[in-house]
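Quick illustration, no need to memorize.
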Amino acid sequence: MSGPRRAGLTLGTILSAALLWACGDSSVGPSPPDVEVVVAGGDAQYGTAGQLLEQPLRALVRRTQSGTAQPDITVLWSVEEGDATLGGAAATVTDSTGMTSQTLRLGNTPGMVRVRVTVERQQTATAEFLVYLVAPPEVTGLSTDSASAGDTIAIVGANFSTTAEEDVVLFSGIRGRTLSAAPTELQVEVPACLPSRTVAVIVRLGSVGSTGLPLTVGGGTQVTTMNVGHAIDVDDPMGLTCLRLAGDSARYLVVVSSASSVGAASYGFSLTGLADGGRTPVSAPTRSVAAPRESAPLDFAEMFERSLRLQEAALVKERMAATPSPRPQTAAAAVPTVGDRRTFKVLKSGGGFDDVTAVARYVGKQAALYVDESAPAGGFDDADLDTLSSEFDDVIYPTVTSAFGVPSDIDGNSRIVILLTPAVNRLTPRGSGSFIGGFFFGLDLQDGEGSNHGEVFYALVPDPTGQYSDARSKSRVMDVVPAILAHEFQHMVHFNERVLKLKATNTEALWLSEGLAQMAEELVARAYEARGEPMLVERHREGNRNRARRFLADPGAVSLIVTTGQGSLEERGAGWLHVLYLWDRGGGTDILRRLTQTTRTGIDNVTAVIGESWPDLVADWEAALYADDRVPGSAPYQYPHVSLRDLLSMPGTSYPLVPEVLGGADFTRAGSLWSSSAHHYIVVPPSEGSIVLRLGGEDGGNAPEAEQLRLRVIRLS
């Protein structure tokens, strides 16, 4: 893990071999036996003759039990039915997110097209996409020029679907229910929430739409009344539900969220606002929000740590599954004493291990500090080692163990070894925007080449002249190492509680594992807060605060469940804020212990411990990111005991989540959402009128079931 300084960085070639080795869980052997393919985008599209479909077909390959994305897997694409051809090679390979995609060009014969994707040599690991080649719908007339909200009208035209649910009829973006459908006529209910105004009536089949015809609507009396602090959820995949919000100086927080559990997937949405008094628009003014980032800038040190967690997962699969019997007890080793010399295996940047000889320089109650004999001059003195040992013994160890569980002691020496070595400095290429400050590697708690067969942390040493990498002063190293120890100690405890004690056959999902480890940093910060030591508080909180602020600057572009395949800084910020929310709302350290001491994984783990569905949890948390401290009471869309604005405040800066303000006129906001992410808006209706809100899927149509699309509205004032 790196020190608190964070900057995005493309990974240098110095780590390439190590990362390929660390990702061996996905690509070693003829083909993985327990993977599945999941549709992650591009399904249920409509297109016209000869069209290259707007959205690629996207498929995710992941482990069946753990849900871990699998990179470097070859999949085969084939058109099984209908008139279409693949736009790319029939064989593609999954990327670091476990994702692969295919383009599709439609032919000339209308009808359904069925495309199959299958993992190479794994015929049972397959999924299908259904897309539709259609003629564009045409609207040539309406049965009336005017109607009242709630009336039924006829739409006359051509090329309509005979399946009513497929005909998306929009009244300036607000969907009406199609009651019956024939190729040339639709019977449609005018939405009851419409105000008095003129709207444009169009018919869409997916992204293929007609031109619009005007209809004068007499508004209904259906108005949604909300008190301050009141929340309303709309969970309607067809987008038939709409809300008419009154003005009277009200302000509403509107959160558009996806609670999809399909990692690396992104989905379209369309949020429409229709104000009183509009006149004959062809369509509501549209503005597209930024699309999710395909690959967020990667932080070098965070990528290195992820490689360790992936390799741990591979080792657990290979060794724990093959060795169900308990590890034999070894003879207890003596407690280290000052002056003891020992040779360690330390991971090298290009793969493999260095032999490092170190001397025990300080032995405390819980840890033995070894310093590499090749450490540069100007390094740690006895006072520095005493400080590090005291922080670990007096605060970090008791705080982490009381919250998460206990470490193993497989070598029987009754101490955690903290190895301070320039081998860690060497892991970071010169000139990098971040650096690896230290790490824990679960290999040391298992048998295998490179294992030290005991509880070991690895941390960098002061290097004032830059002998091994960029220069690092002693003060800088002393500043970053304690927070790293807190973070990595949680990983060590987690590995013991989950893998060694409970015999889990897979490690925790990356986003939750990192969120828990970052929560250990926050708990240690709070312990120092209680002791009245603000400098040490900041030392342990700075990294979390910075990552969280980066996430909140654009939460709609970041997935809680990690999409980039590496765990970007923004995704780490999201993971910590989510675990902080679970801890604050759910009962403190008992929640953290239950999330740690289990064989469940990821979303299944969280929902089992909290006792709430994932869509509800995502909606609550996403709303709390802005609503905290802004509405009365202790509703689930708040952090009950933590003030986010105080916790994340920095001198001279404002709260980073700044929703766009909408509602004085018609609007449409269309874009994409990563799995388990959200966009935030503030809606202010006209002061003497109202505004109608409606959420739909891509192009205003039906949202796929996997998207778990939801609209939450909270009255702020």
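Residues 31-133 form a domain with the Immunoglobulin-like fold (CATH 2.60.40.10).
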